[in-house]
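Minutes, methods subgroup
Present: GH (chair), OT, SY

1. OT presented the first of two proteins processed in the latest run. Sequence and structure tokens recorded below as shown on screen.
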Amino acid sequence: MEKLDPEKLKLEEYIARGSFGSVYKGLYDGQEVADINKLNRNDFKSDSCLVSEYLGDGTLASYLNNHQELQLDVLIQFALDVARGLSYLHSKKIVHGDIKLDNLLLDNETRVKIINFGDSRLEASNGAEMTEDIGTKEGYNIPASEVWTLGSSGRKGDVFDFGASVLGDMIYFPKRAEPKILSQEMPESFGQIDGRLRQG
């Protein structure tokens, strides 16, 4: 992680507060950024903060809500963006722990970025699965008991979340759940998405 010069950071607008800290829109050396300030972690100094690119096009959840007639290729690209992001995190032994549509933001090129690392964990050095509960587990279309029966809290849990909360919600998004949408075409759509994801 690169250390930045705090003198070049200028906070402009409060955005939100989450489990990880307060988020502000601002500028770093003249470039628009999002600053996660006042980290809510005991192992950080009180003046610590994280700076990332500013993603102002909203969450994937709101995008799907506002765009009801997306082509399958667009949904596949969203899925690939998330899958590649997860693959990168897992290659660094980072488990996100809360993959859902509200934790996926769109950049100005409509590419999906994973956010909200407040529930993330590093895997044990011996590669063992983590056993503690992580993430909010809200927003699923299946009961929480099934999440814990079928999923887990390590990398497999992230993959399970990806399938249940991302792929599932992208296809069966609440306002899409009309008889004409939930038709015989849906299994074929899932098959096409699965095939494209396997191709990378």
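2. SY then presented the second protein from the same run.
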Amino acid sequence: MPELSARWRLANGGRRLGVFLRGMRCARRRQISCQTRRELRAVVTKEAPKGRGWAEGFDSQIFGKGLRLLFVACSLLCLLGSPSFAQSAREFAREGFAAKDRKQFPLAIQLFSEAIKQGQFTPEQRGFILYGRGVSYDALGLRGLALGDFDAAIALLPDFPNSYVYRALAWTDRREFDKARDDLLQALRLNPTSALIHNNLGSVYERKGEVDRAIESYGEAIRLDPTAAQAFYNRAHAFIAKQDYRAAISDYDRAVDLQRDFADAYSNRGGMYLLLGDTDKAIGDFDEAIRLKGTDPIFWSNRASAYMTMGRYKDALADFDRAQTIDPGNAATYLGRGRARLYSDEIAGAIEDLRVAARLRPTNAFPAIWMHIARIHQGNPDREELERNAARVDRTQWPAQVLDFYLGKLDMDRVRQDAGGGVGAEGERRLCEADFFVGEFLSHGQQKADGRRMLRKVVDRCRPVDIIFAAAQAELRDDKEAR
């Protein structure tokens, strides 16, 4: 189960990674955010708005098989300037395109609608106007209305690739990826040398889980336009999905070389360095992302998560405070700050933050687990609170089994067995989490020696990049000091 994610940012425009790879998915861009998508996880990778980052300005270009579309475009311009055409329709259409270019989309929609109502346009001219209105609807998030206009534009103007591209973006937002792919393939038949279309196609393949095809499409976009920072950025995210972190770093290097203010790329690259254990480079990249765009809470949370893995809880707490100030409704920030407070001996504050995280994401097991851990540290394990929180959690998702262990419904061998059911790196990560959560619980009860043994196993076997690694070290340190 995703830890509690901030938002996604990745794709045709800029992605961020989730957890130290996160989820690589959040709002309209995937981003690598140091909060987990899984657990409200560690680093979030951003993915830019699917396609729309690169699509800006795309509608102003006339793509395709040249002469035919150029003739149509010229016909529309001649129409708008023709003294024989009704004055009102001519002006409404002309001003509609001007308003769209100025990003005054509500006004553009009104003007296009009035032009369509009053004008006697040829089918192709009407198709361009419907396309312009569809782009305006899309910019406002009115996908249903946009799809209707793109359908009409394609029917009237079947050789204009832009309509297929924008309709593909609308299908992608609806998670109808096969339809999006088909539209982009048709756009490529009309304009096979468009790097932008190949880039968007790569994004759709990635969303479909066809990572190799995504990498191939991003590579073709790069071949056609070697200066396309977004294509390098997107391909990096696809490499992350294949756990090829060095290749991802190489593409992020190219992205920031081409676009020096690419804050998301710096943040995502920082997440990769963190995964590879190079904390100095990771912190340096998070610093640069914050310098470029200090108003983005994901960057502060990412650096905070990096500090957490290093056991620098006070520094992490300061960064989580900044992230929470910018985005006070982010459950991942409350979870991260709650853990930072827990290991900074601010137990009351930790409990309050974890309570908020559980309230914001009641079906996610991680806030409930960490809330119980905080209560144990406080010396006040609240059984009724644990039962209430556990009752709301999605029981089909890991790590709900840990709550059943806390409630005495599962033994620790079964918890570890369920955790190890994951494949590869995911299974290893879950097993590390199981050992930490069980070991932490035992170390505060009657089986202290068994608990410490499991915590030492976490430190010996698990990745330093995981939050639980530093947490296990903190538990062992606190136990040693207490003795």
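Chair's summary of item 2: Residues 330-482 form a domain with the Serine Threonine Protein Phosphatase 5, Tetratricopeptide repeat fold (CATH 1.25.40.10).
Next meeting: continue with the remaining queue.
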